[in-house]
């Protein structure tokens, strides 16, 4: 932690830090997700500093052969609790679950548990990149993810990605992360898709998603819009990013909307696009600074008290 504090000092951050009321934290993983949750802190959404010397804040402890913590996604509930879900496994019969834990301070976490979101599907190949969103009107949570179910959406071979995946989005609802609704189809844009995330703005709900089609290569980000967080979503846009990007995470900072992404092919880097109107997008990756080796996560705003605790950890 000394190195992180020294870096903040060198950047002249302590004086600014005392004046700031809120900050931004980015969740992510390294390598294959075997060592768990990594966090980075920023004051402006551009300069991200690894916390805890880029060591894991939380090791994966789900009783599962893979026991990974990939794609960690965090959202804060109305009571202040931070809820996190993540990808536990790549594939297989054991790949029907996601991981879950919660925290009041992003440091101390509740015992991890598996949520069997696709347990009623016999032919599911995977459960990838779960995300959370709190529905203020329904006063419950949506958990959504992408899965390939054998025999579904496979008729159009142009939609397939590597290893003949054909993903669509599914979701459940919950009020307490103990009891869950029946799993339902969340959104089918008409093509193979993964990595959905939501941004609420002016009564609309913007879904940022990855077009996963391989032939011809898409592998880019698009947007669909709904009137509720559960959809229906429609009017999916043309891509607003380059190809070979995934893991979108969206947030509004000052006058701009930012969509961060993981450019996962060579050269591997984290980057972002920004927009003032959610229509016209400009890449600002060259202005960004991220921890080395950062992989698909999520970004949230946090209060000063939480940031102070993270810096001391």
From TrEMBL:
Residues 1-18 form the signal peptide. Keywords: Glycosidase, Hydrolase, Signal. SUPFAM superfamilies: Arabinanase/levansucrase/invertase (SSF75005). Pathway: Glycan metabolism; L-arabinan degradation. Pfam families: Glyco_hydro_43. One of its GO terms (molecular function) is hydrolase activity. Transmembrane segments: none annotated. PANTHER family: ARABINAN ENDO-1,5-ALPHA-L-ARABINOSIDASE, ARABINAN ENDO-1,5-ALPHA-L-ARABINOSIDASE A-RELATED. Belongs to the glycosyl hydrolase 43 family. This is Glycoside hydrolase family 43 protein. It comes from Emticicia soli.
